[in-house]
Amino acid sequence: MGKARVNPLKSVSVPRLELTAALGSTKINDLVKCELEYNIKKEVFWTESQITLGYIGNDSKRFHVYVANRVAQIRSTTKKQQ
Fold first, then answer.
1. pLDDT in tens, the chain (82 residues)
2. CA atoms of 13 and 18, how far apart (whole Å)
3. What residues does each domain of the chain span?
4. What is the pTM of this model?
């Protein structure tokens, strides 16, 4: 399954767009797991954005509301190892 989105007209930074893409991948993963009648043993998520990986892996720093909400949603459905 794939999904594409276009940039909003309002200017949004690249790290925020990458974080939104990571959130989209977790949502697609949840949808596919729900719809498939197949036992998935391992899930791996890929991103080339070091900033997004830093957001997801950082437990000690507080983020702005936009970033904090998306990181919380990603963490609620995935593990850091994925």
1. 788 888 888 888 899 999 999 999 999 999 988 888 888 888 899 999 999 999 998 888 888 999 999 999 999 999 888 8
2. 9
3. 15-77
4. 0.84
